[in-house]
Amino acid sequence: MRTIFLLLIAANLALFAWARYYAVSEGATDPEPLRRQVKPESIRILTGAELAGLPLLKPKPVTEAAQSALAEPQPGVCIEWGGFATAEAPRAEQAIEPLALGARLSQRRSEETAGWWVFIPPQLNRAAALKKTAELKALGIGDYFVLQDEGKMRWAVSLGVFSSEDAARSRLEALRARGVRSAQTGERETQVAKIWFQARGPDATQQARLRDIAQTFPGTEVRDCP
């Protein structure tokens, strides 16, 4: 019995050695699996001219679904653009007319305390002030107001009242770019009416176009509705 047991152990060890070394090495030396996968005879290095002639991959065009998503109204969004002096509001309204907002566009009027203004210093008399306004009209500027009340600023020409110095300076730079040379900025505490255009539910494209339009109106801003 002991002899049979030892023979069985020896047979198992021999079988294990054959499977571990002989069978594995036989499979590893078989070139067929590697040859079938790589196919070295089909590999060829392209020349520079051949590479240059390969077609370029073009980006896929925007799908109709993506375009529809951009043009889809966003009911929860409300943005407003302003604030405009009453005389300047019609020009701004005309500028955003191509956005075709329809009933989603409305106006909001607010009273704001403005601490800065752009003005042409007081003239000698009413006639001189009117001459200045005629020069402004010739330059295509219609947003102005002649101060006629008694005081040191009588016959000055106001070209806008603003809540910040930066906004006033932006207005002054825009006026100078159009040829106004005698205007300047200064501090002025007063209540002024401002017009804001509110767009409710604009799609992504309309929002982007509104911000682009706002860039052409110095001193204005686009913000969330209050």
Please tell me the overall pLDDT.
82
| Largest sheet, spatial ordering of strands | 3-4-2-5-1-6
Q: Give me the count of strands.
A: 6
Structural class call reads alpha+beta
State the shape: elongated
Q: Which parts are unreliable, with pLDDT below 50 for 5 consecutive residues or more? A: 23-28
Cα-to-Cα separation, first versus last residue:
99 Å
* Helical coverage, percent range: 40-55%
Radius of gyration, CA atoms, in whole angstroms: 40 Å
How does the major sheet shape up? 6 strands, antiparallel
Secondary-structure element string:
HHHHEHEHEEHEHE
Query: Strand content of the residues, in percent?
Result: 15-25%
Q: Count of helical segments? A: 8
Structure keywords:
alpha+beta, 226 residues, elongated
Architecture overview:
The chain contains 8 helices and 6 strands, in the order H-H-H-H-E-H-E-H-E-E-H-E-H-E. It is an alpha+beta fold. Strands 3-4-2-5-1-6 form a 6-stranded antiparallel β-sheet. The chain starts with a helix and ends with a strand. The protein has a domain at 76-224.
